[in-house]
Amino acid sequence: MNPGSVALALINDTNMQACEVYETAIAYAVFGDAHLDLHDPWYDLRLCAVNENPDADAKGFSVRTPYGLDDLVAADTVIVPSVPDAVVSHGEPLPAAFIEALRTAAARGARVVSLCTGAFALAEAGLLDGRRATAHWTNTADLAKRYPKAEVDGSVLYVDEGQVLTSAGMSAGLDLCLHLVRRDLGAHVANQLARRLVVSGHRPGGQAQFVDLSVPATEDDSLGPVMDWAAHHLDQALTVDGMARRAGMSTRTFFRRLQAATGMTPLKWLLNQRLSRAQALLETTDLPIERISEHSGLGTAANMRRHFTLHVGVTPTDYRQSFGAIPPARRGA
C-alpha cells in the first residue's frame, strides 16, 4: 500500500510564528521522516510554499523550498499547519493563489487537512461549508463568526469528515497526524510510530481539548499501574469497581481521577483499549474473528462487529482486508 504524497502548505511570505513552527514540525516528524522499517513505502512529503523567495529581513523563521503551489495541487494529501497570526487576529487576507490552490486540490480529490489555525484557510476556500470542523479552542469563536457556514465545534481534539479533516492546536495536531497514519497504514503502524515519538497511540477525536489535570501527582501515581494492568488483562471481565479496588480508591474517586487524566470515562477508556487490541490482532495475526473478540475482551464476534462498525467505521473483516499483514489464504477468518 502506497500512502501517497503529502504537501505541507506554508504561508511563506510573512513571519512564521512559534505555533506555526511547532505544527509544521509535527507534520514533518510524522510524514517527512521516512519510517521505512514500519512501512515501505512511506509518505512522500514536500514543503510547498506560497512564496518561494521569502523576505530575508523578516523576523523569525523562513523556509526555502523548490516546491510551490503546483506541487500542492498535485498532492494526495494537503496539510495546512496554521496561518499567520495577522490572518486570525486582524482578518488580513490570505494569498488568493493559495486559496485557489486549496480549492483545486480538493476538487481533484485530494484529502485536505488543517492543524490549529489552518482551519481559517480551509474555511476561506469554502471547504468547511456544511462540515463539522475545529481549531484551537481560543480561535473557534472567531472561526464560527467569520465563517457561519462551517459547523465549528470548539470542544474536540480533531474532526474527520472524510476528505476534509481539522484539528485543534499543539498536541491535537499530532493526534490528527497519527489518526491519518492509522487510516492509511493501520493501527499497528500508527501505534509503533506513536511509541517512537513517545506519545499516546490513539486519542479519539471526540476527546475534549482541555481536561482537568489538577489532581495532585501523589493521587495520580496509583492510576498508572492499574491502567497498565488493565491494558494487559483486556480478555478478562474488567469492571470499574474492580479497577478501583486494585487502585485502592473508592469507585467514585477512581472514576473522577481517570476521567480527569484521560478525558474519558473508565468504560469508554476500556472500550478504546479493547478496540486498539482488536485492530492490532487483525493486522498482525491470522486468528479467527471469534478468537480476537475473546482476546480483546469484546465478547462475541457479533459484539465486536457492532463496535467496529460504530467506532472504526468498517467491519473487522474489511479492516483486516485493508491492513492485515497475513496473506488471505492463511487467515482463519
Automatic annotation (TrEMBL):
Residues annotated as domain HTH araC/xylS-type: 224-322
Pfam family, one: HTH_18
Domain of life: Bacteria
Gene3D superfamilies the record matches: 3.40.50.880, Homeodomain-like (1.10.10.60)
This protein's record includes keyword Metal-binding: no
Entry's transmembrane regions: none
Keywords: Transcription, Transcription regulation
Organism: Streptomyces cyaneofuscatus
SUPFAM superfamilies noted in UniProt: Class I glutamine amidotransferase-like (SSF52317), Homeodomain-like (SSF46689)
Name recorded for this polypeptide: Helix-turn-helix domain-containing protein
Database matches in InterPro entries: Class_I_gatase-like (IPR029062), DJ-1/PfpI (IPR002818), Homeodomain-like_sf (IPR009057), HTH_AraC (IPR018060), INH-QAR (IPR052158)
